[in-house]
Amino acid sequence: MFKEKMTADELAEMTGYNRQTINQWVQKHHWETTERRGVPGGKARFIYISEQVKTFIYNTRYMREKVASYSVLRTPLEQLMLNALRTLSEEEQQKMTAILEREGSEGLLKRLGLQKNE
């Protein structure tokens, strides 16, 4: 994926940002560069791809989106419960947590009318 040194155009293509943004990062973060000979105008540079550069690029929005995520297939109930929990507000999540910690799943089922009272 990364070479020892790359142009701003190559990094831009890899990250989805434009060349100007890459060049701004080079200046802002003081990335080490070297002259790229044979380019008209003499301003073209290679960027040394150090660990600092790699870390920064992997933490950009675009690169994070490209990372594949894997999950275990869940039963329809598990998926529905997870989706429902994700839609709760912070306060609702705290209340749900308190109920589960205090009463467990049986108490929650009783409150929902899904378990017979004994």
What does this protein look like?
With 118 residues, this protein is mainly α. The protein contains six helices and three strands. It is rod-shaped and about 80 Å long.
What secondary-structure arrangement, pairings included, does this model have?
Elements: E1 5-7, H1 8-15, H2 19-29, E2 33-35, E3 45-48, H3 51-58, H4 61-66, H5 76-87, H6 90-111
Antiparallel strand pairs: 1-3, 2-3
Helix pairs in contact: 1-2
Count the strands? 3
Residue windows where pLDDT falls under 50 for at least 5 positions: none
State the name of the first-level CATH class of the largest domain: Mainly Alpha
- Report mean pLDDT, rounded to a whole number: 82
**Major sheet, described briefly?**
3 strands, antiparallel
Q: Number of helical runs?
A: 6
Distance separating the two termini: 62 Å
Give me a quick take on this structure.
InterPro entries: DNA-bd_dom_put_sf, YfeC-like. This protein has helices at residues 8-15, 19-29, 51-58, 61-66, 76-87, 90-111, and strands spanning 5-7, 33-35, 45-48. By secondary structure, it is mainly alpha-helical.
